[in-house]
TrEMBL record:
A Pfam family it matches: TOBE_2
Sorted UniProt keywords: ATP-binding, Cell membrane, Membrane, Nucleotide-binding, Transport
Lineage start: Bacteria, Pseudomonadati, Pseudomonadota, Betaproteobacteria, Burkholderiales
InterPro entries in alphabetical order: AAA+_ATPase (IPR003593), ABC_SmlMolc_Importer (IPR050093), ABC_transporter-like_ATP-bd (IPR003439), ABC_transporter-like_CS (IPR017871), P-loop_NTPase (IPR027417), Transp-assoc_OB_typ2 (IPR013611)
The ABC transporter domain, residue ranges: 17-248
Protein name in UniProt: ABC transporter ATP-binding protein
Protein's UniProt keywords contain Transport: yes
One MF annotation (Gene Ontology) recorded for this entry: ATP binding
Superkingdom to which the source organism belongs: Bacteria
Length: 361
């Protein structure tokens, strides 16, 4: 009988950027970026995510060549670029405030770096115009930045970053200067551009929602180390540590005899205190502390029964109920309830990354 032919396992996508034990130390003591290893697949959208001060901008600036590396290496498409000047790396950076020259037209802003490279006026203007057309800004090429909206300025900034033909585009909080409505619109544009251009994007953000909406790969950082790398779905559904579960939000961290578990707020079930639940279901007794109407959902805040509660303490647990379920069985503040979940809904949490576990407050 012929042996079954095994399908070859797909080759891993080539890495656009590889960080090897990359470290940044500004001063004595703990490094701002502490020997991180990361592989970013070519043509992917990668978001570096974490709270303020976790080292995400330092990491991006080291990749860009705007910050010297203390130790470790940066490899771009199999070429070590650790010591190269920014302009020789094959990366380009787009900044939070777009950093456009206010006295130059959109066209001259985009053409600027070609002027620095010594290209003739006709050629650099033709190339800049071509890129402005690509980001649907050709008709506003003669305007100065102050005569453009935030979204239009962002498109000019993108065209300016792309004119040098980078392999990797680095974006430092590119949406944070925009108002909330425009932020959503430009977020969708960023994603579309990345797919259309087929480039690798590395985008720094402190917004979980932004990273989830954009990323193929999320890198969650804390205190200079990487806590978790994965797709938004994997990180949200299988947070590696208590830090990731709490930082991503939408999870309850529950202490059980077997260790800490994360249960999503929309998976944790609530029942009246007197309800007769199956004996083998894990549960805890709690008191409703807040009822927040959110439209399609109602968010219940709860405290463990018997826990002292100060006036401004955050709720220990949260349950997100569809509006219809809440209306069918309403709960009110002060009511004693049982919280329960199935083993399949509980995700065991590992320890935080070692450096974080030792983190000074
Ligand atoms: N030029 C610098 N000199 C000294 N310390 C710095 C410098 N830049 C950053 N740091 C420190 O390094 C740590 C990491 O900073 P970094 O800006 O990389 O974090 P971040 O996660 O991007 O924060 P944020 O979201 O607030 O920009 C912080 O403790 C910060 O104070």
């Amino acid at each position: 009988m012929p042996l079954p032919v095994q399908a070859p396992s797909p080759a891993p996508a080539p890495a656009a950027i590889e960080l090897i034990a990359l470290t940044k130390r500004y001063a004595e003591g703990r490094p701002a970026v502490d020997a991180i290893d990361l592989r970013v697949a070519s043509g992917s959208y990668c978001c570096l995510l974490g709270p303020s001060g976790c080292g995400k901008s330092s990491t991006l600036r080291m990749i860009a060549g705007h910050e010297a590396v203390s130790s470790g290496a940066i490899v771009l498409e199999n070429r070590e670029i650790t010591g190269l000047p920014a302009a020789a790396r094959g990366t380009a950076m787009m900044f939070q405030n777009f950093a456009l020259f206010p006295h130059l037209s959109a066209l001259d802003n985009v053409a600027f770096s070609l002027k620095m490279k010594g290209l003739g006026r006709a050629e650099r203007q033709a190339r800049a115009r071509d890129l402005l057309d690509r980001v649907a800004m050709g008709h506003l090429a003669e305007r100065k930045p102050a005569e453009l909206s935030g979204g239009q300025q962002q498109r000019v900034a993108l065209a300016r970053a792309l004119i040098t033909g980078p392999r990797v585009l680095l974006l430092d909080e590119p949406l944070s200067a925009l108002d909330p409505f425009l932020r959503l619109q430009m977020r969708a544009e960023l994603r579309r551009w990345q797919k259309e251009l087929g480039l690798t994007f590395i985008h720094v953000t402190h917004s979980q929602e932004e990273a989830m909406a954009l990323a193929d790969t999320m890198v969650v950082m804390s205190h200079g180390v990487i806590e978790q790398v994965g797709s938004p779905h994997a990180v949200y559904n299988r947070p590696a540590s208590e830090f990731v579960a709490r930082f991503m939000g939408g999870h309850n961290v529950i202490h059980t005899p077997a260790g800490k578990v994360a249960v999503r707020t929309d998976h944790l079930q609530v029942a009246p205190a007197e309800a007769d639940l199956p004996g083998d279901l894990p549960r805890l007794h709690a008191v409703v502390s807040d009822v927040e109407y959110q439209g399609a959902y109602v968010l219940l805040g709860l405290q463990e029964q018997g826990a002292a509660r100060c006036a401004n303490a955050a709720a220990a647990y949260s349950v997100l109920l569809p509006e219809a379920a809440f209306l069918a069985r309403p709960y009110q503040a002060g009511q004693a309830v049982q919280l329960h979940w199935t083993p399949a809904q509980a995700h065991a949490l590992g320890p935080s990354a070692p450096a974080t576990a030792q983190a000074a407050p």
